[in-house]
């Protein structure tokens, strides 16, 4: 049985504060105001005339003391004259010494020294008790209390009681919140998230009121983060209110109700009434400009809610925090994008701590449950909602129940999790719901460009729709070379559950099919129906023949998307042909991807009048239609026949074609393309095609955007025949000369080109200076054995990226340092490169400098002038002996990679000044023995790799660093710090 033991016996207190005071002196004045102020902030406070009836026994008073977290002792001149007060004081000091309770003296009209020494008015007051047997105990209590840190009223706000009370209440509130945050399981992982928001919050500034957005998918912890911020900062404001669940309350009770709640909470007036939403706005406009407020609007889903609750009526210095699943709501209301923050997923360590708090009531799993807990955390994929739901569900259960629950999740997701996530899905328009389901079932992980092509083919406004899904935090666009689409595992689960749940055991009624066993059974039984609109499957030919597949497809009259992947294994008949009378592919198809398509042409019964995208990669197709049949594909926009056996292609039948990919079509001998039939063609890739075919097609194009061919001479010849007025209007002309055969790059590139990419042009040996005439060039990439670059590269005034791979250059020309717009400089496997220009620091806009496997021994000191540099990669620079001493001046640096710099002896102390550094890679730096002692100053550090170095101890300053993943350090686990 899983244990429910706790790792800490944190005492639970009934009261936040116990007030001890002499009633005749302060009950109706100072203490009364203090009590009301504490109560208004929700601080549960005990005072005897409120909680104890006259005549109650002293032991009940003592019980209240024992059940209070803090004590405020209001010392007045007559305090010590009351034996009742002295009994309270003695008990308070006893609790202060033995428990977690803390006492704060407040010296109302006496000096601390009067209490400590029992002098002045206190001496006269205590004298009344000289015969009491407890006098010694009371005097000791007075002395101890007088030595405590507290407040001397006359020294606070020049003795103004109202201001003094504000300060005291604020301090107590902060202490309570600090205790709450340190013990609240919900704030695990919130520390660095709150730090990310610090600059946006600007606490203490009296600038214009700010609206700060916190966005993220359902269940990711937006409310928890907002609550933690609110609890931590509310005392800094004159008024505060946390408006829970705005979406649900506005739906059930209306916006007028929310306006009343906010006004009542901020103004501390429970009698606020609003006649209409318009009246509420006017009342807010009239009352709120005079109070600096902290307002949280949680779970907003409509701009109308913000218009009614967060207009332009807040006082300077106010902060309005808005949590939402929909970024569009924030943007529509004018929230500055720099103050909109994404809530990230929990790390594995944070997730394990949170799960353990829910499942075991401690921060690590119980013995024997470590592996099962890891499976739950892996399933949750960093989503707090999933962790909390499963932790609560599994608490106290035995191992068998755990295993059963995990197995069930493989096919049946948690209803509670699905219900929370589905709120975002339900808010979508119908076409965006369909797009969401397509991504969840088929398109997650694919490049955005491909997904747009597929969805556009299926009749959706893909670019707009994906932006909506992204704004609603249902997808992410990954920051990689191909901008792949990301979707959280639980959202994928949601989408697939929506498709299957109405008929879980009847795949024939599902709109989308992606499960191999179900599709294979459907094909084998020839039981396809009109319910199916999309199919995605990785084929294994030995298990499912093409005849069986294509026979069933004809029954799916509403199929719009068909994606059949797989590898070629030559198991299908080489002379496979169609029955000319049988329907094979449904005419409803809009996008068809079939890897290793087995036919020599498309089926003759396939009219394809709805087909927009056709991709038959690695296929046996030799022509689109058998026997030269001429079917016009009016809607076809995307055609990809790469690595196919294509021999002839009639493009007159595709008048609206925009994208043509014929990579590796070595057998292609003829492209029929009359002038004027390719007005829309913008992207052509002919790598692997013969030069004669390439030339015959390219000289007819008038709307070229991307040109990718194997020979520069062909490009030159084609471009000479381009109409000049057309070429001058090509705003984004790109040239990608893959596998070019020339040894010298000199002419043939249009002056309007913005991208020149030569990879891998292994025969390229020199580059003439004429390349520097490409004044619109933004990206330049070389892959070849060229020994040097032209000296006048500074003429490339628009160049933003320079990428050199496997060149033989020994140095960069000084002219490189004059490229004012250069943001990225990458030199990979340039083994002959021995030095960088001394004036490298002139590249003021450089954000990325990457040197992999270069032969440099040191970096120029001017590198420290690159104030915008975010990434410095020096991996495998095995001769690099030292870094510049002033490297700490790179104030924007986030990534420093020194992996395999085996000659590097030490790290400069100034590295501790890199306040933005997030990742430091020192793996395989075999000479490194220590890190700088102030290493703990790197407050944003997330990852540190010291594998296979000589570092055996970490600086003591790192002991306070949380959330840093350290690779290759067993010493940290053993607590060894210098």
Automatic annotation (TrEMBL):
The keyword Nucleotidyltransferase does not apply. Keywords: Leucine-rich repeat, NAD, Plant defense, Repeat. SUPFAM superfamilies: L domain-like (SSF52058), P-loop containing nucleoside triphosphate hydrolases (SSF52540), Toll/Interleukin receptor TIR domain (SSF52200), Winged helix' DNA-binding domain (SSF46785). Residues 13-176 form the TIR domain. Gene3D superfamilies: Helical domain of apoptotic protease-activating factors, P-loop containing nucleotide triphosphate hydrolases, Ribonuclease Inhibitor, Toll/interleukin-1 receptor homology (TIR) domain. InterPro entries: AAA+_ATPase, Apaf_helical, Disease_R_plants, Leu-rich_rpt_typical-subtyp, LRR_dom_sf, LRR_R13L4/SHOC2-like, NB-ARC, P-loop_NTPase. GO terms for biological process: defense response; response to other organism; signal transduction. This is TIR domain-containing protein. It comes from Lactuca saligna.
């Amino acid at each position: 049985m899983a244990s429910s033991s706790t790792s800490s016996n944190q005492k639970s207190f009934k009261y936040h504060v116990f007030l001890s005071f002499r009633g005749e002196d302060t009950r109706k004045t100072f203490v009364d105001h203090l009590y009301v102020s504490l109560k208004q902030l929700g601080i549960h406070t005990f005072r005897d005339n409120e909680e104890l009836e006259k005549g109650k026994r002293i032991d009940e008073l003592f019980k209240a003391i024992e059940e209070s977290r803090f004590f405020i002792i209001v010392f007045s001149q007559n305090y010590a004259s009351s034996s009742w007060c002295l009994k309270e004081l003695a008990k308070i000091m006893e609790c202060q010494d033995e428990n977690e309770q803390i006492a704060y003296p407040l010296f109302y009209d006496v000096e601390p020294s009067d209490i400590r020494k029992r002098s002045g008015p206190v001496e006269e007051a205590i004298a009344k008790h000289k015969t009491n047997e407890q006098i010694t105990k009371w005097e000791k209590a007075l002395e101890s209390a007088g030595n405590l840190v507290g407040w001397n009223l006359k020294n606070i706000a020049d003795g103004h009681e109202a201001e003094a009370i504000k300060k005291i209440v604020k301090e107590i509130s902060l202490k309570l919140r600090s205790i709450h945050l340190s013990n609240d399981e919900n704030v695990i992982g919130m520390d660095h998230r709150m730090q990310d928001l610090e600059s946006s919050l600007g606490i203490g500034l009296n600038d214009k009121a700010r609206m700060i957005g916190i966005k993220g998918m359902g269940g990711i912890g937006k409310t928890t983060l907002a609550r933690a911020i609110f609890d931590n900062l509310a005392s800094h404001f004159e008024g505060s209110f946390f408006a829970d669940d705005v979406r649900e309350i506005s739906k059930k009770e209306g916006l007028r109700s929310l306006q009343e709640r906010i006004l009542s909470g901020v103004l501390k007036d429970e009698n606020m009434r609003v006649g209409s939403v318009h009246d509420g706005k006017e009342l807010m406009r009239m009352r709120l400009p005079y109070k600096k407020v902290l307002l949280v609007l949680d779970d907003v889903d409509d701009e109308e809610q913000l218009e009614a609750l967060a207009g332009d009526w807040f006082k300077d210095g106010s902060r309005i925090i808005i949590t939402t699943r929909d970024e569009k709501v924030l943007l529509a209301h004018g929230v500055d994008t720099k103050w909109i923050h994404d809530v990230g997923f929990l790390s594995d360590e944070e997730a394990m701590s949170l799960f353990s708090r829910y499942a075991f009531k401690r921060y690590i799993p119980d013995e024997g449950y470590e592996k099962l807990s890891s499976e739950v955390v892996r399933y949750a994929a960093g989503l707090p909602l999933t962790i909390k739901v499963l932790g609560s569900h599994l608490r106290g259960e035995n191992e068998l129940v755990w295993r059963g629950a995990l197995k069930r999740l493989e096919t049946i997701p948690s209803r509670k999790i699905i219900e929370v996530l589905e709120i975002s899905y339900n808010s979508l328009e119908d076409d965006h719901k369909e797009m969401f389901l397509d991504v969840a079932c088929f398109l997650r992980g694919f490049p955005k460009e491909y997904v747009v092509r597929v969805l556009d083919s299926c009749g959706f406004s893909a670019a707009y729709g994906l932006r909506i899904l992204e704004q609603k935090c249902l997808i992410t666009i990954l920051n990689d070379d191909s901008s792949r689409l990301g979707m959280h595992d639980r959202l994928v689960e949601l989408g697939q559950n929506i498709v299957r749940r109405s008929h879980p055991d009847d795949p024939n009624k599902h709109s989308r099919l992606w499960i191999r066993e179900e599709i294979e059974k459907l094909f084998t039984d020839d039981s396809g129906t009109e319910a199916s609109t999309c199919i995605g499957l990785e084929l294994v030919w030995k298990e499912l023949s093409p005849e069986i597949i294509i026979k069933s497809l004809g029954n799916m009259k509403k199929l719009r998307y068909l994606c059949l992947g797989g590898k070629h294994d030559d198991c299908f008949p080489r002379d496979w042909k169609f029955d000319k009378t049988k329907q094979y592919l449904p005419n409803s198809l809009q996008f068809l991807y079939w890897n290793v398509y087995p036919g020599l042409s498309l089926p003759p019964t396939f009219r394809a009048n709805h087909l927009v995208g056709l991709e038959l990669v690695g296929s046996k197709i030799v022509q689109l239609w058998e026997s030269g049949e001429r079917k016009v594909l009016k809607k076809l926009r995307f055609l990809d026949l790469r690595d196919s056996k294509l021999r002839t292609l009639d493009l007159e039948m595709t008048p609206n074609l925009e994208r043509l990919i014929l990579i590796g079509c070595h057998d292609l001998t003829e492209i029929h393309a009359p002038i004027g039939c390719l007005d829309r063609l913008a992207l052509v890739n002919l790598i692997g095609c013969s030069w004669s075919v390439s030339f015959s097609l390219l000289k007819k194009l008038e709307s070229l955007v991307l040109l990718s061919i194997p020979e520069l001479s062909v490009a030159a010849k084609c471009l000479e025949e381009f109409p000049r007025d057309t070429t001058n209007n090509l705003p984004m002309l790109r040239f990608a000369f893959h596998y070019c055969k020339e040894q010298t790059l000199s002419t043939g590139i249009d002056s309007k080109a913005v991208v020149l990419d030569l990879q891998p042009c292994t025969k390229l040996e020199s580059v003439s200076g004429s390349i520097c005439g490409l004044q619109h060039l933004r990206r330049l990439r070389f892959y070849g054995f060229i020994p040097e670059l032209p000296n006048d590269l500074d003429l490339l005034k628009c160049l933003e990226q320079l990428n050199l791979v496997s060149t033989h250059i020994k140095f960069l020309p000084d002219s490189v340092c004059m490229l004012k717009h250069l943001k990225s400089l990458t030199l990979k496997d340039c083994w002959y490169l021995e030095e960088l220009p001394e004036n490298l620091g002139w590249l003021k806009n450089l954000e990325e400098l990457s040197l992999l496997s270069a032969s440099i021994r040191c970096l120029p000191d001017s590198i420290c002038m690159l104030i915008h540099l975010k990434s410095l990669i020096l991996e495998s620079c095995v001769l690099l002996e030292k870094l510049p001493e002033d490297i700490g001046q790179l104030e924007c640096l986030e990534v420093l990679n020194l992996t395999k710099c085996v000659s590097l002896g030490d790290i400069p102390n100034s590295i501790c000044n890199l306040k933005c550094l997030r990742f430091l890679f020192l793996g395989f730096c075999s000479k490194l023995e220590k890190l700088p002692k102030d290493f703990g100053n790197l407050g944003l550090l997330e990852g540190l790799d010291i594998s296979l170095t000589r570092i055996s101890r970490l600086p003591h300053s790192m002991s306070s660093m949380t959330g840093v993943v350290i690779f290759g350090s067993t010493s940290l686990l053993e607590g060894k710090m210098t």
